[in-house]
Amino acid sequence: MTKKESFVAKRIKSVGYAFKGAIILLNNEASVKVQFIIALLVTAAGFFFNISSTEWAIQLLAIGLVMSMEGINTAVEEIANFIHPEHHNKIGLIKDIAAGAVFFASVFAIIIGLIIYIPKLATI
């Protein structure tokens, strides 16, 4: 029985660490703050336009993907800066690739938003 409690306690700690990381991202990263504000705006738009359950699911997946990619990008940048604080071409390439992943997620999230909201805006 102790192992189950230990497992549960470890999971609770893991969730705590993840929550702490999310708060750190929101407090310290400008790009995450911007993405979070956009997420709040499209969430409000979802309520305003009464989007369908499928649209909600797709919108939330897009928000989660972009926010997650921003977090991973920040972690890559922090690791790269820790390993090699001075400018280095290879570190710059690594950071650019991580930022490119965020770019892909953001572009497709914008496309999803347009697919969901252009028809609704057209009926106003």
UniProtKB/TrEMBL annotation:
GO terms for molecular function: kinase activity. It comes from Mariniflexile soesokkakense. It is found in: Cell membrane. It is a multi-pass membrane protein. This is Diacylglycerol kinase family protein. The chain crosses the membrane at residues 34-51, 97-118. InterPro entries: DAGK (IPR000829), DAGK_sf (IPR036945), UDPK (IPR033717). Its EC number is 2.7.1.-. Keywords: ATP-binding, Cell membrane, Kinase, Lipid biosynthesis, Lipid metabolism, Membrane, Nucleotide-binding, Phospholipid biosynthesis, Phospholipid metabolism, Transferase, Transmembrane, Transmembrane helix. The lineage of its organism: Bacteria, Pseudomonadati, Bacteroidota, Flavobacteriia, Flavobacteriales. Belongs to the bacterial diacylglycerol kinase family. The keyword Hydrolase does not apply. It is an enzyme of class 2 (transferase).
